[in-house]
Amino acid sequence: MTAITVDLPLVASGKVREMYELPDAAQPSLLMVASDRISTYDAVHPTPIPDKGKVLTGLSVFWFAQTGHIVANHMISATDGVPEDLRGRALAVKRLEMLPVECVVRGYLTGSGWKDYQASGSVSGVALPPGLLESARLESPIFTPSTKAETGHDEAIDINQAAELVGDRALMEKVAEVSIELYSFAAEHARQHGVILADTKFEFGIDTSDPARPLVLGDEVLTPDSSRYWPAEDYEVGRSQPSLDKQYVRDWATASGWDRTPPAPPIPDDVVQGTRGRYIDAYERIAGEPFDAWLARASA
Q1: What domains lie within the chain, and their CATH numbers?
Q2: Is 45 helix (H, G, I), strand (E, B) or coil?
Q3: Looking at the whole model, is its pTM more than 0.70?
Q4: How far is residue 219 from each of residues 56, 83, 97, 202, 263, measured CA to CA in Å?
Q5: 91: helix, coil or strand?
Q6: Tens of pLDDT along 106-165?
């Protein structure tokens, strides 16, 4: 992918996305552009993953459409207001006042949650039964928020700390409830398509242009960057799982000898292609259509 050039005011630039102002929109709106960059351990690798941004955008569009009955979301259009050369990897979205927490829901014991459980028997203050194995399915999904760090690592917190950050206990309890409902709905859909949604991260904001100030789902949603997806046919409790997400690159980065200090190293061609294949596989299984169908629809 060549460098993205957008003739709009830049609002924010992150590890993967750029946000631009859409000044002529009828409501406060942004152009959210997903690049092909990939990061591990909070450092961006110099090697892009071809089509990654289009997978993230396509899956977000799919899930926004599927979950609108649970909570409103910020998507306006994948075409209207989106420059033609960015269609497929960019969305016009509502501008929100984002909440300062990451809303993580876990249905399986893995990743940092597994490490926390081994150390304390709980995850983000949620006590779990003793004797659970790695990758075990939890009896019920749990809400395990974290801080939203501008630099460095997000830190796991409990719901009380999250409520303090947000400044509204009732709102935070609603966010937790909606997050679990979103996860449960998506996990069931994924399961029916041969995929396990182990955990995921949501971001929410408030639509301040609406006098009612409704809660709105923002950012990306249920993508291989923000979620752990496992092929159901390979699932086996008691070990780490093959993945259809960013974990494949994390595993390579861990085994490479890199000490996790920036700059991140280049990614070998075979890992690049393996990652691209996993992301596209995730899209096609979950959306139930060829990836090319999304690209054709977005560019029409």
Answers
A1: 97-249 (3.30.470.20)
A2: coil
A3: yes
A4: 11, 19, 12, 8, 26
A5: strand
A6: 999 999 999 999 999 999 999 999 999 999 999 999 999 999 876 667 899 999 999 999
